[in-house]
């Protein structure tokens, strides 16, 4: 259900030659505004999506992505154009499976001074631009040193051969170019150029097939098999990618120092208007309800930032003279998958309608993202669910005409009901020594009201920083750099 005049984007050539008056343009926009009763019909229909039976397994669904129409006009539409099949949290392929014909040609083939792999010829300009020698690519920073556009357009291969000192045979190729430069390429590196699009995206994003969970996660013990404070960084980040959270046990709690050191082992701690690493009590030192003792419904943090924090951590250092304050976690991807199964139209509304947010409680501060974002954000490359943004307390305007907002409220009501569904709420009482770390792009958090005095410490970590650490440990440097070079 587009919100700007679609007639303008679809005008005929004859219309484009005319220069209508401002009044006639306004009248045309009013005539083409979709009516309330037609809203359901204007929503894009979703193709078949993964069902509940696929929650724990990878999906092999292929994507049929669609380009934005209207070029500059599309950038300003209040409803972002999604892939024709927004697939939800389970709709991304996790591996590249070559065809039988490609598998039969897995070796680097040299024919007529042309390089072929998996039956695909790799263009000379790509090969030369991605030469990995020390004069073309900095050995430490992996930054390009050569001027790409100084490479001759008619560059050709003078000679090419399989490296004779490499084993097994045909896994490396040596090329001498017509300009005299020499390059060597490995089979895994060249495979990145012809690998499936989804595979490259998955490596770049550090994608892992998510395991969706409900309140029963507390009975399974999966993420609660907590690594100790002194564990390796990979044990800290791996469950974040799979479950969206984990606990870190045996963390010293006499001071917040050990918790801060723990977070810095993952990545840099993000600075915000609240500071960096935080250590607070319910004293409203910062003007936010988190700094009170009232109950908080399930929400994500930083909806008022253009880029919300990736990871968030809480460590209860002490709780005296009172009780309560249990922590609430809800798997936003699980709730999204459930909404997609039960009401596709509502899912589509939350995936397309942009919503604004703000943080304006502190003196002299009013933080707002550069534009509104939908509650359910999808990756433009894969169509998969990327991020959940939900905090009704910080919500500002909804980018819909006032006579159309009921559509969003109806969809949001269904979403809110899923978040408050007892079967989806996982409650756990934090204790000193146990640090909770969770993915703020996926897992919503809240708490029950409490009495007494609680001291909490923690912090935010940027998404790019922790994903970088995770994917380098999971995929290795060669695969990660190969995905960067992929065409």
TrEMBL record:
<comment type="function">
    <text>Converts trimethyllysine (TML) into hydroxytrimethyllysine (HTML).</text>
</comment>
<dbReference type="InterPro" id="IPR042098">
    <property type="entry name" value="TauD-like_sf"/>
</dbReference>
<dbReference type="InterPro" id="IPR038492">
    <property type="entry name" value="GBBH-like_N_sf"/>
</dbReference>
<protein>
    <recommendedName>
        <fullName>Trimethyllysine dioxygenase</fullName>
        <ecNumber>1.14.11.8</ecNumber>
    </recommendedName>
</protein>
<dbReference type="Pfam" id="PF06155">
    <property type="entry name" value="GBBH-like_N"/>
</dbReference>
<feature type="domain" description="Gamma-butyrobetaine hydroxylase-like N-terminal">
    <location>
        <begin position="120"/>
        <end position="190"/>
    </location>
</feature>
<feature type="compositionally biased region" description="Basic residues">
    <location>
        <begin position="33"/>
        <end position="42"/>
    </location>
</feature>
<keyword id="KW-0408">Iron</keyword>
<dbReference type="InterPro" id="IPR050411">
    <property type="entry name" value="AlphaKG_dependent_hydroxylases"/>
</dbReference>
<dbReference type="InterPro" id="IPR010376">
    <property type="entry name" value="GBBH-like_N"/>
</dbReference>
<dbReference type="Pfam" id="PF02668">
    <property type="entry name" value="TauD"/>
</dbReference>
<dbReference type="GO" id="GO:0050353">
    <property type="term" value="F:trimethyllysine dioxygenase activity"/>
</dbReference>
<dbReference type="GO" id="GO:0005506">
    <property type="term" value="F:iron ion binding"/>
</dbReference>
<keyword id="KW-0560">Oxidoreductase</keyword>
<keyword id="KW-0124">Carnitine biosynthesis</keyword>
<comment type="pathway">
    <text>Amine and polyamine biosynthesis; carnitine biosynthesis.</text>
</comment>
<dbReference type="GO" id="GO:0005739">
    <property type="term" value="C:mitochondrion"/>
</dbReference>
<dbReference type="GO" id="GO:0045329">
    <property type="term" value="P:carnitine biosynthetic process"/>
</dbReference>
<comment type="similarity">
    <text>Belongs to the gamma-BBH/TMLD family.</text>
</comment>
<dbReference type="InterPro" id="IPR003819">
    <property type="entry name" value="TauD/TfdA-like"/>
</dbReference>
<feature type="region of interest" description="Disordered">
    <location>
        <begin position="1"/>
        <end position="60"/>
    </location>
</feature>
<dbReference type="InterPro" id="IPR012776">
    <property type="entry name" value="Trimethyllysine_dOase"/>
</dbReference>
<feature type="domain" description="TauD/TfdA-like">
    <location>
        <begin position="241"/>
        <end position="459"/>
    </location>
</feature>
<keyword id="KW-0479">Metal-binding</keyword>
<keyword id="KW-0223">Dioxygenase</keyword>
